[in-house]
Amino acid sequence: MRLFILILFFFFHSVLFASQQPFSFLTKAETHYKNAISKSSQRTADRSRIDSLLNTPFSPADFDKAYLISKQIGLFLLEQGTHAKALDIFNDLKQYLDAKSPKSADDQKKISTVYTVIGAIYEETGLWNEALAMYLISLRICDSISNKAGKAKVFNNIGKLYFSRNELNKAEELFNKAVVINSELKIREELFINYNNLAGIYSRRHNLPRALEYALMALNQLNINKNFYSLSFLYSNIGDLYQDMGNFPVALTYYHQAADIQIKQSYQISLIESFLSISSLYHSINNNDSATAYINKAMMIAQSLNNPSENLLVYRTAAKYFEKIKDNKKAYDLYSKYLVLNDSLETMNSLTKIEQIQAVSEVINKEKDNKILQQKIHLQQLSIERQRILLIAAAAIVFLFIYFVISLIRNNKRESEKNRMILNQADQLHKQEKNMHLHKEQALELELDYKNRQLTSYALHLARNNEFVSKTTSELKPILLGLSPRDKERAESIRRMISDLQQYSSGSDWEEFRLYFEEVHQSFEKNLSTSFPDLSPNDKKICALLKLGLSTKEISSITFRELRSVESARNRLRKKLGLAADVNIHTFLFQF
Which residues contact residue 174 at a Cβ distance below 8 angstroms, ignoring those fewer than 6 apart? Predict the structure, then answer.
């Protein structure tokens, strides 16, 4: 019992300890995030959202919260251009989710999202085949759980992949598949992306009216009071389409709408591009003063941001503009700045791109090594599991054997106890039967003794009656002889009395005695006759009277014989029975 309690204690302690441990992927994500923000003081909406999530208390065992934070950090690092670190985080998420068992439908959705993001990272680093493989895995998972919204996102991402390869027909087919699903589900944010991508396809095909049609369809999906960044971005795209179509007033209207939103929301980089577009439009309608003014505004913002990429764009656009308006000195000055900055950025971008590709390759190789290691660990776990199963099976067999032995011992003990009880009961029953038999024998002996006493009493009574009859008869005979011949009546009366007395003491009394004797000693005469077939009826009568213990005198009275005659009959009987002189005839006759 103590061992069982100890095992339970360690089990619950280990479960509790494990539940208090933070997820490893979240720890890594927080480390990458701290390193990223330490290199930049710029605060963005994404960074504020992540800080808010990190500062909100939550249980270390809350996987959903840990997943959400890690995902947001991974997307933030991806926007910052640190693809390798982002990939490292999402690979850890993928590894954890793949190993999780059992998997809920929500877990499957998370897995498909992670594969989609990993595919996007591969796509941005030029690993198109690897990206497509990730997208297809995500698509298969979405199919297995009927996740239509997830399928639409994957269709859109694969379409972008084909668009980047200039395979426009395939890209259009996939974007339309996404539109069908998102229209059914009424997901307006995703429809905005799908329609905008379709607008890009038709713009590249130089089918501007169709491109404009899709751009306006994308515009209808946006909330003008909420989706400010997407709205300003789409206004600029629509302005470009109208400008390319030669409808400058409408194009200018859309450019100004985009700029107004960007100014209010402080989208400085987007504002630079809007000002450059407005400048280009004014130059197209020969309003160079306005064109120059907006070029200068764009240059001022770019210089204030100290963003090399934006400065490069502004320098190149401004140099071309001033070259067109014949301001060669300013154009030359801007071209010089552009060339110096371009060389620097190309070198930096080349190194960064190489480092980025190397870092991503290292993460991919690391992931492959992890898979190989996981396979080895899995094989080891299978081996350990098999050994554990064998040990459990052996323990179960031992336990069953012990249980069988204990059960056998208990059964034997119960059987022994049962047998002992049965023997005790049998012994008690035997004793009871013996006592009953003894009581019965005693009762029979008492009854027999009682009947013998009654029989003896009857025999004695018979003997006394016979004596009385004999005596009375003897006394009446002299009286009869002494009467005168004249006294006939009295003589006749006395003769009748003598006759009645003799009749009373005749053989009928003996027959009644004999029947009563046989009722008490049922087999006496039969046994005696079997052992001594030569005995006469008179011998048997004397044997019966001797068995009752009557004396010779009593027998003489009962049988109406002289005493000497009875003694002679008794001696003759001893000879017939073959009794020695020292054998008591009464004792001998008791055995029959």
Answer: 155, 156, 158, 159, 162
DSSP state of 23: P
Residue-wise pLDDT for 399-438, tens only, equals 788 877 888 888 788 888 877 887 887 778 777 777 777 7
Q: Which of 136, 132, 109 is nearest to 122 (CA)?
A: 132
Tokens of 455: 């029989």
Question: pLDDT tens for residues 162-195?
Answer: 999 899 999 999 999 999 999 999 999 999 999 9
Domain that holds residue 286: 222-326
Distance CA 93, CA 74 (A): 10
The answer to whether the peptide bond before residue 102 is cis (omega within 30 degrees of 0) is yes
CA distance 543 to 205: 154
The one-character DSSP state at 103 is P
Report in angstroms the alpha-carbon separations of 208 from 174, 198, 199. Answer: 21, 12, 9
Tell whether 545 is covered by a domain. yes
CATH number of the domain where residue 546 is located: 1.10.10.10
d(CA 520, CA 47): 127
Q: Which residues contact 287 (CB under 8 A, 6 or more apart)?
A: none
Task: Copy the structure tokens of residue 355.
Answer: 């480092």
Instruction: Pull the structure tokens for residue 577.
Output: 């029975």
Cα four-point dihedral sign 565, 570, 571, 572: positive
- Domain termination residue (choose one: 326, 347, 379): 326
What whole-number distance in Å separates Cα of residue 347 and Cα of residue 332?
Answer: 22
- In a domain? residue 300: yes
Amino acid identity at 434: K
Please report the pLDDT score of residue 17 as a whole number. 39
What's the CATH code of the domain at 302? 1.25.40.10
d(CA 387, CA 124): 47
279, part of any domain = yes
Q: Which two tokens stand for residue 46?
A: 């994404």
Taking a C-beta distance cutoff of 8 angstroms, is the pair 123, 142 a contact?
Answer: no
Give me the number of domains the chain comprises: 2
Instruction: Classify residue 164: in a domain, yes or no.
Output: no
**Residue written as token pair 């339970």:** 8
What Cα–Cα distance (Å) separates residue 151 from each residue in 113, 215, 221, 522, 579? Answer: 10, 23, 20, 115, 130
Q: Which residues of 108-121 are buried (b: 16+ CB within 10 A; e: fewer)?
A: bbbbbbbbbbbbbb
CA-closest candidate to residue 163, choices 198, 190, 136: 198
Choose the final residue of a domain: 300, 326, 352: 326
Q: Can you tell me the distance from the alpha carbon of 389 to that of 400, in angstroms, rounded to the nearest whole number?
A: 16
Separation of alpha carbons 285 and 291, rounded Å: 10
| Regions of the chain with pLDDT less than 70 | 1-22, 39-45, 60, 344-382, 443-468, 470, 502-510, 560
What is the DSSP annotation of 150-177? Answer: HHHHHHHHHHHHHHHTT-HHHHHHHHHH
- Number of Cβ atoms within 10 Å of the Cβ of 144: 11
Q: What is the CA radius of gyration of the chain?
A: 67
Query: Is the model's pTM score more than 0.90?
Result: no
